[in-house]
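FAQ: What does the model actually see?

It sees only this:
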Amino acid sequence: MKILFIHHKLNATFIKNDLKILKRHYDVTDFYFTIKKIPQLIKEIKNTDVVYVWFLSYPAFLAAKIARVYKKPVILVAGGYGVQSDILEKHKIFKLMVKSAIKNATKILAVSTFTLLEVQKLDYTVYRHAKCKVVYNGIDTKLFKNYNIRSNKNPIALTVGNIFSMDRYYLKGIDRFINLARVNPKGLFYVIGMCNKVAKNIKDVPSNCHFLAPIPQEALPFFYNIANTYYQLSTYESFCLTLLEARACGCNVVTSAERTGMDEIQGMFISELTLEKREKKLVGVLDGYKN
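And it is asked to produce this:
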């Protein structure tokens, strides 16, 4: 079975994970979307069996429209900020695009129940028609595990995120994390994933708070394992993979409690949130579209 895998943000770990999973089972075309590629997108959709799109955003809008013309099943993954209620209220045209994508989708895979409820706010019929299904993101538990190497003598606090803009800086709660460092001068605080252009804009950073650039996925377990506490102080999260990684590595975890999906996965066993579990469920969904 041929699958067209559409995305516009391949640096995200959860997208890379899904791409690897699907390639193990199907003939997958990896399609990085840009506006210039619309003619190619039409051709690819015409010649595929199933369209699979990460994020409910403008690529999903176009892909779902085109797939409907060629009568191809289209599976949309709902995660991230594409269904965030307050953002959509501020951007009416984008909201209409997302609602259109939902309407034209064959199936929507939400990364959490929290996200499923966000989708339902846009179209309540997705639940009635069993169109939306929760398939949790997962982590590689062979990579992310507790190595019992942390020390309690010098408490280390950690937060991880791809901070490539000031909007992301505030969205991920890095300003709050820095304030924690300021009022706890004896602790060491590390932000992993801070881009230089953003770091240059941050003033009055306390000496006990350190910014590190994005690092390879394989290097993250070391930092989770030396940290005593992992902070995720985001104002919005549909799932939060880094929170799950930190939990698997034995970190104490502190989260914000504002309209997020983090509480949901905090209350679940790590064994229910593995890549193996996601793979089984994704294949179960996609095998249903085999001819």
